[in-house]
Amino acid sequence: MLVWPPLVVLVISEEPKQIHQKVAKSSRYIYGVHRSIKNKNLIMAAYEKNRGGSSVEDAEMQSLFTDDSPREKKRNFPNQPIKGLALALLLASIAFIFFSFSNQSSKWFLFRCQRPYSSTAAPSTSAPVTLSNNRPPNSNYTPQKKSITNISHILFGIGGSAKTWKDRKHYSELWWKAGIMRGFVWLDEDPTSTSTSTSTSTTQQSSWPPASPPYRVSKQPDSRFNQPAVRIARIVLESFRLGLPNVRWFVMGDDDTVFFAHNLVSVLSKYDHRQMYYVGGNSESVEQDVMHSYGMAFGGGGFAISYALAAELHNKLDGCIGRYSNLYGSDERIMACLSEIGVPLTPELGFHQVDIREDPYGLLAAHPLAPLVSLHHLDAVNPLFPTKTQLESLKKLISAYEADPGRTLQQSFCHDHKRNWSVSLSWAYTVQIYPYLMSARDLGIAFRTFKTWRSWSDGPFTFNTRPISADPCVRPLVYFLDHVTNKKNNNNNNNNNDHETLSTYRRHVADSSKFCERKDYHAALAVNVVNVTAPKMERDEWEKAPRRQCCEILNGNSSSDGADQPRVLHIKISRCE
After folding, report:
1. What is the predicted pLDDT for the residue at 322?
2. How distant, in Å, are the alpha carbons of 93, 165, 225, 248, 250 from that of 218?
């Protein structure tokens, strides 16, 4: 059923003035008739109340209201205006139906829904957007067709401080590729400004490290934005207003965040940047998620905002920030503002806030089935590799990651039923050999080698953990990555899948380690080196339904007494069959 107001009739009709006159005239007449009937009723009521006269008087009184003369009938029933009004209503109805089903826009329909944002056109540049080149943000960005996302489509925004950058720059310099990546470190002040040394009373000019990402100084329009959390929250806004072309994703991180950019691209390629997406990860510690929000992407682990969402956010963020001054960090304020827009978090398990203390080994040895995207809080945990500093550990991990980015930290299981062994490996990090059989379910649960972030307790965490037994006959033998080399198959094709990697792991013996005296354990102790052969992961692997890959022990025919036990264990990773 079509419902339309009388106003439409007047606007769409061919002769609005004539119809207006007829309607006004008819309205005045109806109003007069109404008053006449009302007066008649009052007079009749008074007459009935005080009636005492003759029947003649009654007849005369009735005749006042029952004159059936043709003249009165014509006056009381104005047929001509009624017919005109009915005709006008009929014409207006036909016109209204025609316009309702027409595909063309009509200037008469004043109240229309706003057209949703389309990335094929530049967003509105109404205040407060101001650009030095007088062009709208990303005015060159017109992706009519969705092509494959690559690293050039990502704009990084790193929150930092001019005073602390020299102590944290090594984290960004580990992954930043000048000339390939785009982005800026957003600082609170210019780091190259002239400063006076109080100890020497001399003036010195500092220079920006050439291996670091380029920097920008955050703008502070008014006193509301002096708080560090607010300043960092506005990095999304300031990055968008730069108006750089062909930006699909705005990726935020801290100055101590280590990104694995190839895997970041793999993750973001799954999503349409022309839609509103907010991608990131939670904290590992439940206490942190409860305190802040399970629906928030923790900023240290990094998060990504699609171009479409940034276009929606950039004119709302400054007004929104003031409503959430009670919130703690920049990431929490961003989440609150996105909640007003109605966009939830799209969680990805490869973003790691690393809200844990002590040893991260258990977390990295049982990495979820997702590409490794980021690591954070690396100053607050033990080095990833024993006997090395954290910086040396990260260089080692990144060197292996560059050989096969998508496979980094991916866990595989295999069993040797003749020797009753179970093997778990986290590619490019560690191998564990259990001299007994374990289920895949148990092997996939992380060792609890760490504590919660705030209370330093044994949990809870957002994933399952298991304790490390004090019994040396229950604990696995642990091997850490030594190096990774590229190995090409016999095929001459240049396809990426025709290449393999050979990663080598050596057994680590802690100073306080106790050895199991069981005979079956001695056979496993004879293995000093584990070599793992694996095909390089295909680019589109993470666009498919996730499935853990399997491994196979190649030299698994030795006897269980250890007499001919090899010192090198050979393992091959492949797709499960």
Report:
1. 84
2. 59, 15, 10, 22, 16
Q: At how many degrees (to 10) do helices 79-100 and 16-50 cross?
A: 130
Give the E-state strand segments of 348-476 in sequence order. Answer: 356-358, 374-375, 411-416, 421-426, 430-434, 446-447, 450-452, 465-466
What pLDDT was estimated at residue 103?
42
151-190+209-347 CATH fold: Spore Coat Polysaccharide Biosynthesis Protein SpsA; Chain A (3.90.550)
Amino acid at 178: A
Residue 275 has pLDDT above 50, yes or no: yes
Residue spans per domain, the chain:
1-40+82-93, 151-190+209-347, 389-574
DSSP code of 219? P
Give the Cβ contact number of residue 188 at 10 Å: 18
- Distant-in-sequence, close-in-space partners of 364: CB < 8 Å, separation ≥ 6: 384, 409, 426, 429, 430
Both tokens assigned to 535: 């095909």
Tokens of 323: 């409503």
Q: Are 234 and 143 in contact (CB under 8 A)?
A: no
Can you give the pLDDT at residue 515?
83
Q: Phi-psi region for residue 559, left (φ > 0), alpha (ψ -120 to 50) or beta?
A: beta
| Per-residue pLDDT at 328 | 87
Instruction: Write the CB contacts of 77 (distance below 8 Å, at least 6 apart in sequence).
Output: none
Count of all residues that appear for the chain in the document = 577
Q: Among candidates 477, 393, 474, which has minimal Cα distance to 429?
A: 393
Distance of CA 429 to the CA centre of its chain: 28
